[in-house]
Amino acid sequence: MLPLLPFLSRPHKTADSPRWGLAPGWSSYRAAGLSVGLALLAACSGTKFIPEGSKLYTGSTVKVKSESPIPKEAELTTELTGVITPKPNASILGLRPKLYFWHMGEGKTKGLGHWLANKYGEKPVLLSQVDTQKVKGLMVNRLYNNGYFQPVVHSKVQVKGQAASVDYTATVGRPYTIKEIFFPEGDSLLPRAVRATQAASLLKVGDSYSLQTFTNERLRIDQAVKNQGFYYFNPDYILFQVDSTLNNQVNVYLKIKGKTPEQAAKPYILDRVRLNTDYTLNDTTLAPKPINYRGYQYFPDEDVFKAKAIVNAVFLFPDSLYRRRRQDQTLSRLMSLGTFKYVDIGFRPARQKADSAGYGFLNSYVRMTQLPKKSLRAEVLLVSKSNGFTGPGFQVQFRNRSALRGAEQLLVNVTGTFENQTRSNTNTIGLTSYELGANAQLVVPRLITPPFDIRLKNSDFQPRTTFGVGAKTVTRLDAFTQQAFNVNYGYTWKTKLTNEHELRPIDVQYLRLSNPSQAFEKLLEERPFLANSFRQQFVLASSYRYTYNQQALEQRRNQVYFSGGIEVAGNLAYLVSSLSGQPRTTNTDGSQAYTLLSQQFAQYTKVDLEFRNYFRTSSNPSSGNKLATRLLIGAGLPYQNSSVLPYLKQYGIGGPNSVRAFAARGLGPGTYRAPIASENSSFYDQVGDMRIEANAEYRQDLFPYVKGALFVDAGNIWLINQDPSRITVDENGNPDGKNGQFSPSTFLKELAVGAGAGIRIDVQFFVIRLDYAYPLSVPYNNSDVVRPSLNQSFNKRDQSAGRLNIAIGYPF
């Protein structure tokens, strides 16, 4: 259809111009082509399928007119547009292909045409289906709700051929504003409680009259008085009376309905609180002899959960005023223990206790249904790591949900993987890896901070103290074997849904290299920095990380994610070692380092920042159409006892979750390129102390469970200190003397840039991702360079071709 348009508009020149002359019969071909093109356009525009005498409804416009300024005009216009019915047929550039599919199946009960009509078709929406009087009435109602009293709404039908649209025009005066607000009078408990909330009122003098604001004010007051003990109160007992006889102003009188039930007009005190940690749906009675603990009635016993552990997560206190906030907090805390499948909180009047001084009494019951205390799970995995290693793996996990009878979770994991990284040079050493490890973690649902008892009473989320220990061995085929042992201790807590903190005062690792191959030993000799990063050493670190995440707020159209962390290692060990006169050892590069327990230790400070933004282009919360962006900034500074970061702490870039047009660890540092003779070691060379990376990706729903994406990636890594063994070049291919070191004046020119498109098969719990990326900017010189002084030849690597990435999950 569309390709005909430029053909039909081709310039026509005179017959004495042979280049543009018309062949015999050209006029008849052109007329035929024009007729076919117009017929196809009519079919796709939908007007061909309109019954005789009817008009295709193509939509409406809304305009608000006033002699006075209109506050929030765009929002008001959007609200008025939202009441227009019916919705016109979907169109793309004026074409309505869904009407064509509908016509293919018209009158058919089976076959391809019937299937296409049901799957992709849409019945024509006619002008006769538009009830303008009803729409105008709804618009008048919305205008009243926004303070525009006595508005006038007109409609006008615009006809164009077999199509028609409707224009609505609303004429309004100045909106009414609030002059005064009066809260209920009286000395009884309920009016006093409502008046106590006035300082936080959503109604403000001078604001425009808005029905939505009044509705929100009722909900706010209901929540506030429920936190003052009024358990049976609800928003329907609040009444607003508005005096609109003033000149474009209103007085608002907030009142409590006279027919408010007596039980809703008084606050309640909790009398008895029962905790049942082993409730099932078949329960008909509670245990006859509960344990009395801190005023609670605790059922059934302490064989599985100590009463103290459960009570610490309960904020409904006997002999205290009922507060809805504490009820919600208790429910959230108990569920976040991870030991219960269901938690139910209920209340009943305490019938055996008489009301006192206008207060009633409630009995509360908290019923908890347990998850199995112990479980064993085995999984077969497809492991995909950020350094480009991918392969099958397994994990066996044992879990005890109350290891010490205090809702402590003990997790013991045994893992194993076989991994491989594919690179263009198959001679690269150590790209086939075997890994076997075991670790144990004890998660305690409270902060262990002796001598202090910190409960974070205003948080809905259970804080945790975590103890961990683990060991793993990694064997890189034809390269080396490395053992890593770790012990850690730390805290995690959330102040609210979007904010999370993680503090690890102790995070100790011990790294040991063994069984190096001859090729890898030679590589270490040639690369002193690499020998330093792989040296046998302790990593005695402490770290803190803060995360702000709005992705749990699913209704938000724009969601922000931020994570920032700092890790410090070796400072205390250096102080102790230097003050105590511990002997130094000499490294392969000639530097000297202090030891602790006859072992070297790393010393560095590392900062990582990550910012993401997700903007949903559709107003539908379930839509996957969004623009996702990410910025990564990271830097590690080795000092004193270290001249380079431990290898496991260094940055690499490239691969399916990074700059996708390049192989994992296929970039940097800076403009560095591995010499031909050392190509088989480039995987180990291309790491650095600093990283800057940015990604932008547009995601679009295509079909059920299938999404598409367009993306752009940019980034690189750099060194903090120069490394003479990694020679970098300028744009002409000559040594630049920076040796991969970061420079504020040139780093933008050294960013690698790639772009591409992808398909994602997303079945909610599992995502398979295929991304094809093409390099747009390469930071290193891409030609053969011979440096006689160094006697090194640098290979030309073809970056003109794209790269296909297959991965699990989204890149960010």
TL;DR?
This protein has 812 residues and is an alpha+beta fold.
Characterise the protein shown here.
Helices cover 17% and strands 37% of the residues. It has a 19-stranded mixed sheet that branches. Strands 8-9-7-11-10 form a five-stranded mixed sheet. It has a three-stranded mixed sheet with strand order 1-3-2. Mean pLDDT is 85; it is low at 1-43 and 782-798. The longest helix is centred in the N-terminal third of the chain and has 20 residues, at 26-45. The chain is globular, with a radius of gyration of 36 Å. It is α+β, with helices and mostly antiparallel strands and 812 residues long.
Label this structure with key terms:
disordered N terminus; Bac_surfAg_D15; five-stranded mixed sheet; single chain; 812 residues; 14 helices; 37% strand; 17% helix; membrane; D15-like; alpha+beta
Layout: helices, strands, pairs:
Layout: H1 4-8, H2 26-45, E1 56-66, H3 73-81, H4 97-104, H5 112-120, H6 132-145, E2 152-160, E3 163-172, E4 177-182, H7 189-195, H8 211-226, E5 238-243, E6 249-256, E7 268-276, E8 291-293, E9 296-299, H9 307-311, H10 324-336, E10 340-349, E11 360-370, E12 374-384, E13 390-400, E14 409-420, E15 432-444, E16 464-476, E17 480-496, E18 499-514, H11 518-526, H12 528-533, E19 537-549, E20 558-569, H13 571-579, E21 584-586, E22 592-596, E23 599-601, E24 604-616, E25 626-638, H14 682-685, E26 690-703, E27 706-718, E28 752-762, E29 767-777, E30 785-787, E31 792-794, E32 803-808
Parallel strand pairs: 1-3, 4-6, 7-9, 7-11, 19-23
Antiparallel strand pairs: 2-3, 5-6, 8-9, 10-11, 12-13, 13-14, 14-15, 15-16, 16-17, 17-18, 18-19, 19-20, 20-24, 21-22, 22-23, 24-25, 25-26, 26-27, 27-28, 28-29, 29-32, 30-31
Helix pairs in contact: 4-5
